[in-house]
Hints:
Layout: E1 5-9, H1 18-31, E2 36-40, H2 47-51, H3 55-63, H4 78-86, H5 88-93, E3 97-98, E4 104-106, H6 115-120, H7 125-129, H8 131-140, E5 147-151, H9 158-167, E6 169-174, H10 178-198, E7 203-212, H11 217-229, E8 239-240, H12 243-251, H13 263-282
Parallel strand pairs: 1-5, 1-6, 2-4, 2-5, 6-7, 7-8
Antiparallel strand pairs: 3-4
Bound molecules: adenosine-5'-triphosphate and magnesium ion (MG).
The site of adenosine-5'-triphosphate has 19 residues, from helix 1, strand 7 and helix 12.
Amino acid sequence: MSETLRAATFLDKGGTGKTTTVAHLGVALDRLGRDVLLIDLAGKQADLAKNFGVWDEYRARIEEEDDWPNISTVFREQWGRIAGKLGDEEAVGNMIFETGEGPDLIPAHPGLDGLDTELNDIEETERRYSRLDSFVNEYIEPMDYDFVFFDLPGSTNNVSYNGLWSARNVVVPVEAGPFEARQAGRLRDDLRRISESFGVDLSLSMLILNKTDSRTRLSEEFTEEYEDEYPEVVAPTQVPRSQAVRNSANRGETLFASNASTGTAQRAREAFMENAEELLERL
Ligand SMILES: Nc1ncnc2c1ncn2[C@@H]1O[C@H](COP(=O)(O)OP(=O)(O)OP(=O)(O)O)[C@@H](O)[C@H]1O
Ligand SMILES: [Mg+2]
């Protein structure tokens, strides 16, 4: 088996489609024959669990405090004891849900929300940012997934840095707009800076134009701007704005599981498939 590929969706902005992208590319990669694990680091929102309809089951666990271990524990000293007590396989296995659409999922946990400050207390920067990476290397790699995809919070903090550090490859969904274009530029500079100061190779692998509207001139202009500015990273296919994306998320499934047959739903599905194939090529 070759090494597990990794990527993360990230942008320091809410609502651009990070979770939607992880969910849909995750299912697309599964359809391309890959074994996929999704890891949600976006705190108590637990949006991936909601997007895959396993939220009620997961919430019941959290409420009964039967959610131990969970993804937040892997960042803490206690992880060593947990794995020692349960054994590696069971410790990780306890955190994994089946989505019903192919990929496995480690959902986000409210315990992630307090982590930023805790990680700040770790003086040595490399240790502060590489907690998740150590966990993935030691416990996830042996499970032989083909692809691990992280969903990161829409803000820059120690948890998202851990995700970037471990994923190395960043997928950025953006909406067409001047603000987003600047943000994507800043992200690219940030990744370069982190790479240089810590000697890890982080790259902006794919920039996906999401929620595009082919009928507006504005959308077209920004598309051209992105293509000029990021010729090597813009995804081959834009994802149109489609009400079916929102509706299926609310039902707890992706577009691939939904029978929505509108033009935009159809094009969005194709876009996710084509971008997933391209992502495999690029990694
Ligand atoms: N192509 C699309 N067409 C229509 N709606 C979309 C599309 N992509 C995402 N959405 C909707 O936009 C909203 C935000 O998407 P999503 O939750 O994926 O963003 P996010 O970047 O993960 O947000 P957050 O920063 O809060 O984690 C959701 O309601 C989602 O269903
Ligand atoms: Mg999200």
